[in-house]
Amino acid sequence: MAATTAHVFGAAVPRTRAFGGRKRHAKTRATSLELVSPEDEREVRGTTRPPVLLALPGGDVEQLLAFPLIEAVRNKNPGCCVDVLIPSRAKSAYGINPNVRYTFVEELDGDPSPDQVSAVLGKLRNKGYAKLISAKPAGATFSLDMLTTNIPERISYISSEGYIFNWIANWIMKGERVPTMKMASLGASMYDMLWKLALEEEAPPKKPLNFKIPAKAKQLAKEKLDAQGLMPGKFILLQSSPVPDTDAEVKAYDWSRVGANASTPVLYVTKTTKEAKAYAGANVAVVPTVAELAALVEMSKGVVCANTPALLLGSALEKPVVLVGEDQKIAESFVPGGKVQTVSDPEGANSILAAW
Question: One cellular component GO annotation, for this chain's record (predicted)?
Answer without folding.
Answer: chloroplast
